[in-house]
Specification:
GO terms for molecular function: endonuclease activity. With 274 residues, the chain is an alpha+beta fold. It is 37% helix and 12% strand. The structure holds calcium ion (3 copies).
């Protein structure tokens, strides 16, 4: 799938009148704006994708966003996730490598698997929190899957996210204790936005659990993730980066056909959960 609707980024201001939005919708593919389109084109596309969410807050915003990001979505198989991650998490300075969550290391794209030194597929929203496994659905949704070092992935396990704990020697800047994981500063906002996306995308109407946020750090086998207050703080302190915006764009254009609204509109997290 290759969609012509392109959206650029958190600067979208929704200032254009509707006639321009309609014009962009009918633009032929070969004249569609490039990925780094001028702001006016980007705003127009953003206006179209999120039109049904405009002006809403709280539960009605969450409901509108759920509909938007759950319509015409492609669900990947778990094996397709490998190829997707090689593209979405490609190292900008080394196309043959991917950037690992939690450590920021660059590792050969082909060096994936289950052995020490490999990278594998981290479920930022753990499979056990909702028991969704790796059949096509939440367990294969690339919006919350990231390459990680095999051993660091294992250390994080299925812990909720929160501040505090002892340093993780294999992953400098990360901390953990018995019931939570604190990611390094560069990854804090990314993680929060991935968790926010999952809570809105999965509402229990598609054969999988309704994933939701709470303020606990002992959610274990329930379909909840915490701590909400910490994640809101992480989201504010680490705003969307170019890397994150690029991967959101690629997932939308080339893999799943849907977007993470909290990368495009960071203010919506507070509108729903603040
Ligand atoms: Ca803790
Ligand atoms: Ca970040
Ligand atoms: Ca939900």
């Amino acid at each position: 799938m290759r969609k012509t609707l392109l959206i650029c980024l958190s600067t979208a201001a929704l200032t254009l009148p509707p006639p321009l939005a309609a014009a962009a919708d009918t633009a032929p593919a070969d004249t569609a704006p490039a990925a780094h389109a001028p702001a006016d084109h980007a705003d127009t596309a953003d206006h179209a994708y999120y039109a049904d969410a405009e002006g809403k807050t709280g539960e009605s915003l969450k409901t509108a966003l759920h509909e938007i990001i759950s319509t015409d979505v492609t669900r990947l198989s778990y094996s397709q996730v490998w190829d997707a991650l090689m593209a979405t998490d490609q190292d900008p300075s080394d196309p043959g490598s991917v950037v690992l969550l939690y450590t920021g290391e660059s590792r050969g794209a082909d060096q994936h698997g289950g052995n020490v030194g490999d990278w594998n597929r981290e479920h930022v929203w753990p499979q056990s929190h909702g028991d969704f496994g790796t059949s096509a659905g939440p367990g294969t949704d690339v919006h919350h899957l990231r390459p990680t070092d095999v051993q660091v992935n294992s250390l994080r396990g299925n812990k909720d996210f929160d501040d505090g704990g002892s340093p993780v020697s294999r992953a400098p800047g990360n901390y953990t204790d018995g019931d939570s994981w604190e990611a390094r500063n560069e990854d804090k906002g990314d993680i929060a936005r991935m968790i926010f996306y999952m809570a809105v995308r999965y509402e229990g109407n598609d054969g999988f659990a309704d994933l939701e946020l709470d303020n606990d750090t002992s959610n274990g086998g329930t379909p909840y993730m915490g701590r909400l207050d910490t994640l809101l703080a992480w989201h504010a302190q680490d705003p969307p980066s170019a890397f994150e915006e690029r991967r959101n764009e690629l997932i939308f254009e080339d893999y799943q056909g849907n977007r993470n609204p909290f990368i495009d509109h960071p203010e919506w997290a507070e509108d729903i959960w603040g």
